[in-house]
């Protein structure tokens, strides 16, 4: 029997991909929004392709706002872009 691969939708481009190909953005119960590299932390998660373009699209189309049902300050996007840049550089 084939094991079902969990698919997630990118909040930037809207494409469905497997969880392993995506990056999870997490709204923790305490409030801050962080990049969840392990994908195992508690909180409300939104998924994004591993591309800076998708992060830009998500910012433009308010993907995070819709996922978390709250307004997202620009600093959060800037922080995510910075973390994203560090990941891409590794």
Task: Give an overview in words.
This protein is of the alpha+beta class and 90 residues long. It has a single domain (7-89), classed as Hypothetical Cytosolic Protein, Chain: A (2-Layer Sandwich). It contains 3 helices and 5 strands. The strands form 2 sheets. A 3-stranded antiparallel sheet has the order 4-3-5. The chain is globular, with a radius of gyration of 13 Å. The N and C termini lie far apart (37 Å). The model has no long low-confidence stretch (mean pLDDT 87).
Can you summarize the main beta sheet? Answer: 3 strands, antiparallel
In terms of DSSP E residues, the strand content is 15-25%
Q: What distance lies between the first and last C-alpha atoms, to the nearest angstrom?
A: 37 Å
Would you tell me the structural class of the helices and strands? alpha+beta
Count of extended strands: 5
Supply database-style keywords:
single chain; 90 residues; alpha+beta; 3-stranded antiparallel sheet; 34% helix; globular
SSE order and pairing:
Elements: E1 7-9, E2 16-18, E3 22-27, E4 33-36, E5 44-49, H1 52-60, H2 63-68, H3 74-89
Antiparallel strand pairs: 1-2, 3-4, 3-5
Briefly, what is this?
By secondary structure, the chain is an alpha+beta fold. The chain contains three helices and five strands, in the order E-E-E-E-E-H-H-H.
């Amino acid at each position: 029997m084939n094991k079902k691969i969990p698919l997630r939708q990118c909040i930037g481009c809207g494409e469905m991909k497997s969880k392993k190909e995506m990056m999870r953005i997490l709204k923790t119960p305490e409030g801050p929004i962080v990049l969840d590299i392990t994908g195992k932390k508690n909180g409300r998660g939104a998924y994004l392709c591993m591309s800076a373009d998708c992060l830009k699209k998500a910012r433009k189309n308010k993907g995070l706002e819709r996922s978390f049902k709250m307004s997202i300050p620009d600093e959060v996007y800037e922080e995510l872009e910075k973390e994203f840049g560090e990941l891409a550089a590794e």
